[in-house]
Design a protein that fits this description.
- The chain has about 50 residues and is mainly α.
- About 95% of the residues lie in helices and about 0% in strands.
Length: about 50
């Protein structure tokens, strides 16, 4: 019985960790895209000011 609960806990932990990792990776990509977009906007603003 103890081994059964342990194995169930391991499986649930792996599933939760995988789900959390996928969500964090998606947020990381979203943040990176936002930073790149902001950098492009600043670059365009400087280009327009120097013309």
């Amino acid at each position: 019985m103890c081994c059964n609960n342990f194995c169930t806990g391991i499986v649930v932990g792996i599933a939760a960790g995988t789900c959390l990792g996928i969500r964090l990776k998606a947020k990381e990509k979203k943040i990176r895209r936002g930073i790149n977009r902001a950098a492009r906007n600043v670059e365009h603003a400087f280009d327009n000011m120097t013309r």
